């Protein structure tokens, strides 16, 4: 049982600063990031050949901390023949983008990533060309391009 005559009071003050989610910077080897596939043999496009790995660095600042759950996705037009692929300037040709073996669908494929190393993480990404399996569609020789935007989102 407590003796009321021995009780003492100690004032306690709590404080801090509320901030929104810190902004993150995404950088690659060049800005904007450009991935060059070089010469791609039409008959050898199979979703494996011609993969061109690259790495993005995401910096959100040390205030974010470690083991913070984030989501990665990217915006762009889906290919008509495969909603997992990014549309290119050539009908019947698309680009699959994967992270850690998981394909990221344009405009619908947020995948979880974990921030580590005091607000800095690296994202190894692998784009690879794919083609429409419709035998009636013929790919013709010539240059192709595709554009998407990689995003990091807070839950």
TrEMBL record:
<dbReference type="InterPro" id="IPR050263">
    <property type="entry name" value="Bact_Fimbrial_Adh_Pro"/>
</dbReference>
<dbReference type="GO" id="GO:0009289">
    <property type="term" value="C:pilus"/>
</dbReference>
<protein>
    <submittedName>
        <fullName>Fimbrial protein domain-containing protein</fullName>
    </submittedName>
</protein>
<dbReference type="InterPro" id="IPR008966">
    <property type="entry name" value="Adhesion_dom_sf"/>
</dbReference>
<feature type="domain" description="Fimbrial-type adhesion">
    <location>
        <begin position="14"/>
        <end position="154"/>
    </location>
</feature>
<dbReference type="Pfam" id="PF00419">
    <property type="entry name" value="Fimbrial"/>
</dbReference>
<dbReference type="InterPro" id="IPR000259">
    <property type="entry name" value="Adhesion_dom_fimbrial"/>
</dbReference>
<dbReference type="GO" id="GO:0043709">
    <property type="term" value="P:cell adhesion involved in single-species biofilm formation"/>
</dbReference>
<dbReference type="InterPro" id="IPR036937">
    <property type="entry name" value="Adhesion_dom_fimbrial_sf"/>
</dbReference>
